[in-house]
Automatic annotation (TrEMBL):
This is SGNH hydrolase-type esterase domain-containing protein. It comes from Daldinia eschscholtzii. It comes from the Eukaryota. Signal peptide: none annotated. SUPFAM superfamilies: SGNH hydrolase.
Length: 327
C-alpha cells in the first residue's frame, strides 16, 4: 500500500513538473498555439523595411564588386515605365526625374540618365517610357535598348495601365518578376528599384491598384541575394511623404507637381538605401558619359520623334539610339 501511494505521488509530481515546463516553454514562445495558416495575411512579412518604406528581401548580401557613392561611383540610370515616368501633365514634363536627379547631384552623385528617348524640360532627360504601357510591354521595349546602354541602376514605375485597361491585373506581379529578372541578366552590374502604384481616383480602379501592390510586396521576397528594392509609393501602408488622393490630378491617375516631387524624393531615398546596403556597382565602361549634362547645353531637350503610345513591336535602331543617347 505504501508503495502504491509513493507511485501515486510520484505520478502527480511528474505531472506538475510537466505542466510547469510546458508553461515555461509557452511563455518564452518556444511552444506556440496552433494558428490557421490558410490566411497569408496572418503570416509575418519576411522582408526588411526601412522607416522610409523601402523594402528588400532579408539578409545582408551584397555583390563582390560593390562600389559606394562616396567612392565616386557614377549612376547610369534608366527610368522605365509609362506616362507617369515620362512626367506627363507636370510642369515642363519633368515629373519625378528632375527632383530626384537634382537631389542626387546635391549629394555629390555623378548622374547620367539613359534611354532611347528624350522628354522633358531638363538637359539630362533620357528615359525609356511609353504612354499606356503595361508591365509586359515595357519589358519588351527594354530588350531593345538595355543590352546596348548597360545601366547600373533601373527605376521602374509601371502597373497602373494594367488596371486602367483591366488587362493582366492578376498577372502584374508575375510579369514584373520576369521583367526584373531580365534586367539583372541583361545588365549584370545593375541594381533594380521598382515601386508600388500610386493611389488612383478613377472610379472602381483603387481596389485593383491595391491588388497589384500586394503582388509587388509579395514579389520582393523572391529576390533574396539580389540587388532589388521595392519603393512604397501608396499611402495605404502608413509611411510619410506618400502622394495622397489630393496630390493626384483631375484625370485621377497623374500626380500634381507636388505629387511628382514626392515620388522623386522616395526614389532618392531608395537609391540611398541601395548604396547603404552595398548593392551599387561601377557601370560597364562602354563610352557613355558619366555626367548626363555634359555637352548638352546647346542640344534640344526633346526627341524629334516619339514611339507609338502602346506599341509592343517598336524596335530601337542602334544607329538611331546612338543619336538619342549620350556617348
Amino acid at each position: 500500500m505504501a508503495n502504491d501511494e509513493k507511485r501515486l505521488w510520484s505520478s502527480r509530481l511528474s505531472f506538475m513538473r510537466t505542466k510547469r515546463v510546458i508553461f515555461t516553454l509557452g511563455a518564452t514562445h518556444i511552444l506556440r498555439p496552433k494558428t490557421d495558416t490558410s490566411d497569408d495575411s496572418q503570416q509575418p512579412i519576411d522582408v526588411n523595411t526601412t522607416a522610409d518604406g523601402i523594402m528588400t528581401a532579408p539578409g545582408d548580401w551584397k555583390p563582390n564588386n560593390s562600389s559606394r557613392i562616396s567612392e565616386g561611383t557614377p549612376l547610369r540610370i534608366m527610368s522605365l515605365g509609362a506616362s507617369l515616368v515620362r512626367g506627363e501633365f507636370s510642369t515642363g514634363d519633368v515629373g519625378f526625374r528632375k527632383t530626384m536627379r537634382d537631389e542626387l547631384v546635391d549629394l555629390g552623385v555623378v548622374v547620367n540618365m539613359v534611354g532611347s528617348q528624350r522628354f522633358g524640360d531638363m538637359l539630362d532627360n533620357d528615359l525609356e517610357a511609353y504612354g499606356g504601357n503595361r508591365v509586359s510591354q515595357i519589358h519588351d521595349h527594354a530588350t531593345h535598348i538595355v543590352p546596348q546602354l548597360q545601366p547600373n541602376l533601373f527605376l521602374i514605375q509601371v502597373g497602373t495601365n494594367n488596371v486602367l485597361q483591366n488587362r493582366d491585373v492578376d498577372k502584374a506581379g508575375a510579369h514584373m518578376e520576369d521583367f526584373i529578372s531580365y534586367l539583372l541578366r541583361a545588365s549584370p552590374r545593375s541594381t533594380v528599384i521598382f515601386s508600388t502604384c500610386l493611389t488612383n481616383t478613377v472610379p472602381n480602379c483603387e481596389p485593383m491598384i491595391l491588388d497589384v501592390n500586394r503582388q509587388y510586396r509579395d514579389l520582393i521576397k523572391k529576390f533574396a541575394s539580389k540587388p532589388v528594392l521595392l519603393a512604397e509609393m501608396h499611402p495605404s501602408e502608413g509611411f510619410p511623404g506618400r502622394p495622397q488622393s489630393i496630390d493626384i490630378g483631375p484625370d485621377g491617375t497623374h500626380p500634381t507637381d507636388y505629387g511628382y516631387s514626392l515620388m522623386g524624393r522616395i526614389f532618392t531615398k531608395s537609391i540611398q538605401e541601395a548604396d547603404r546596403k552595398g548593392y551599387l556597382q561601377w557601370p560597364v565602361e562602354n563610352g557613355l558619359e558619366k555626367d548626363g549634362d555634359e555637352g548638352r547645353a546647346e542640344e534640344t531637350t526633346a526627341s524629334s520623334e516619339l514611339p507609338p503610345t502602346t506599341s509592343t513591336t517598336t524596335k530601337t535602331n542602334p544607329t538611331q539610339a546612338a543619336t538619342t543617347t549620350k556617348g
